[in-house]
Amino acid sequence: MALQRWDPFREVLSLRDAINRLFEESWVSPTSIVTRTTVGMPVDIEERDNEYVIKASLPGFKPEDVNVSVTGDTVTISAEQKGEEERKGANYLVRERRFGSVSRSFTLPTRIDANNAKATFEHGELVLTLPKAEEAKPKQIQINVGGQLQSGQEQVQQ
């Protein structure tokens, strides 16, 4: 066991760091507001053999307030919720409900067939079923051996 010489300035520096950390955590910074806004639309994205399924939680939004657009392999979901007018004479004890717009974009690994996409919205959950484009689906290649087709077929993915 080695003895370590006591250095009083080491203790002062760590105290200063602790006070700086305390001040940084107690003030609301613009980055924390941006982080909370992004969490306004949590999503799950699942890849299946021939399609992608995106589930987005949008509680409090109406179906007519939600927009979905597809450009190539990028899907954008946006929604806008109009707020209530603040009533004169109202004495709010707590007012936390958030109004405004939220938007998320996702780039999928392959192009999708937007013409056959389906969207449902129920109980604040948007479910998008996005079929993969024909060129992105796996293709079957038949093997000829001496002019005869092989009984086993090999699947090749593009």
Automatic annotation (TrEMBL):
Residues 34-146 form the SHSP domain. It comes from the Bacteria. Signal peptide: none annotated. Residues 38-142 form the CS domain. Keywords: Stress response. InterPro entries: A-crystallin/Hsp20_dom (IPR002068), CS_dom (IPR007052), HSP20-like_chaperone (IPR008978), Small_HSP (IPR031107). Belongs to the small heat shock protein (HSP20) family. PANTHER family: HEAT-SHOCK PROTEIN 20 FAMILY MEMBER (PTHR11527). This is Heat shock protein Hsp20. It comes from Thermobaculum terrenum (strain ATCC BAA-798 / CCMEE 7001 / YNP1).
